[in-house]
Amino acid sequence: MQIVDVSRNVLVAALAAAFTVSVAAAPAHASAIGSTAVNSFSYTVGGATVKVPTGCFFTHIIKGSGKKIDHQNAGVDCGFVAALGPGFCNWRIDFSYADMNNATYKTSRGKTHPECKIDPMRNNSPQTLPRYGKACTHLYVNGTRRSSQCHYIKK
């Protein structure tokens, strides 16, 4: 499996270092880590306005070989002022899979969590994909997609 990061995003240096170590430790497997900056936004929950400032990143990690995914997770990390806020309320993380023509053929919809969390995260089950294409993850907050991160999975 060749996994290629398709985002136009920032890759956090610490994650890049961890990625290098994991690739060196397991040369038979392909892995990818990508991070997308979460744009600042506001939303209303329970009559109160919540503002998520700049400083959060949505990270997608995938490990596997060929069309087999051994491990996949996604989550948010915030720093600076963003880490001091209430975080993300009514959040969920979905995983989706598309073929080489960009047609989505499977979505694993996450549970909506009503609590507010500064560092939401979700793991997805190991699986074997029926075809090559791309694996994506999407962060929803209060029903609105706020960030996505994808990797191509190719021969």
Give a description of the structure.
The structure is a single chain. The chain has 155 residues and is mainly beta. It has one domain. Helices cover 8% and strands 59% of the residues. The chain contains one helix and 13 strands, in the order βαββββββββββββ. The chain has one helix at 13-25, and strands at residues 2-5, 30-38, 41-45, 48-52, 56-65, 68-78, 88-99, 104-108, 113-117, 121-124, 127-128, 133-141, 144-154. The strands form three sheets. Strands 1, 7, 8, 9, 12 and 13 form a six-stranded antiparallel beta sheet that branches. A hairpin with a 2-residue loop joins strand 5 and strand 6. It is elongated. The model is unreliable at 2-28 (pLDDT under 50).
Radius of gyration, CA atoms, in whole angstroms: 16 Å
Strand content: over 45%
Structural classification: mainly beta
Through-space gap between termini: 5 Å
Number of strands: 13
Mean pLDDT: 82
Low-confidence stretches: 2-28
* Separate helix tally: 1
N-to-C SSE string, H for helix and E for strand: EHEEEEEEEEEEEE
Describe the global form: elongated
Give the total of domains: 1
Question: What is the makeup of the main sheet?
Answer: 6 strands, antiparallel
Helix content: under 10%
